[in-house]
What does this fold into?
Amino acid sequence: MENIYPFAEISRQGYHKQIIKRDRDALLYSRIKESVIELREDHPRIGTRKLFIMLKLKGVVGINKFERFLLAEGLSVKMRRSPKRTTNSNHYWYKYTNLLHGFKLTGVN
It folds into this structure.
């Protein structure tokens, strides 16, 4: 390994710090994944931002990195589309006939 350090332009200390950080991050993300799976059993449709707050991860990992992690692991919730359509914006195309055309009023009520 001594020959590789100068070639890669890193110090021995930097190389070993990187390995330790990678192992620490792997452990952190495995614990986060377990916690998310556990919370999703009780709350299957909870969003990632609310999960972030519930797990109290502020200062440990950023919200955007947390969201990317859940997306990569397949733990993010897909948005549901509403099957109902309540507004017909093309209503001005319909023309209704006058049902009272030619009708004569003969009295009250």
In short: The two ends are 103 Å apart (CA to CA).
